[in-house]
Amino acid sequence: MSDFAPAGDPVIPDYGVASDCVVNNGFFCADWFAAQWSSVFLPPLLSHIVITVIAVVIGFAIAFTAALLAYRRKWLVRPVGLVATFLYTLPPLALFQLLVPFTGLTLVTVEIALVCFTLVIIFQAVLSGLASTPSAVKQAAVGMGLSPGQVLRRVELPTALPAIINGLRIATVLTVSIATIAAFVVDDGLGSPILKAISSPFNTQFIGAGLLAVLLAFVFDAALVLLGRALTPWTRVRV
């Protein structure tokens, strides 16, 4: 039986004896998916995780630092917010295209773009979380002799944690989805098997890679929910 993909770039690897599902191009052939898991799906899944984690960690470090500075120096809120919002509104493919002349068709281009899309979400989440601390609580902390740095660490940041975690959840899920488009720049991540499958009439590779991207977003989101609960046990105390 011949490959479904054009010669030179087969979408379906050599699978030996094909099942009826593969022969008839069923909606989703679980047997083919399982057989090709380690060669077709696992490597891009792992690289997708790495790409996402790197972008979110760097984006969080930049946005968190900028939010702390803006919280202390209010005049920075507007200019930093405008820059972050502008970067967020750029279409992903357009931003990739703008970066390629400087950083080439590399993972660096992908990471820069993904980091840009996380900034406004995390920046606003940190700011809104810090601003949610009641003024009476801060005044009480100052009255107890705490310095501004101690008030930030012991009062404001713990109060802001739920909002920060929610911002991280949104930024992470967004990064997982946009990272699939990165296959137009580098042959990496779950977007790679998706892009290759587009040129083929075979359904399973396209659907399988797409489902993995959706499941990965759910897993990241659930992990951050659990992290938020672990870091803020007081939010679960019933009065």
Automatic annotation (TrEMBL):
The chain crosses the membrane at residues 45-71, 80-100, 112-131, 163-186, 206-228. It is a multi-pass membrane protein. It is found in: Cell membrane; Membrane. GO terms for cellular component: plasma membrane. It comes from Leucobacter luti. This is Osmoprotectant transport system permease protein. It comes from the Bacteria. PROSITE patterns: ABC_TM1. The keyword Iron-sulfur does not apply. Residues 45-228 form the ABC transmembrane type-1 domain. Belongs to the binding-protein-dependent transport system permease family. Keywords: Membrane, Transmembrane, Transmembrane helix, Transport.
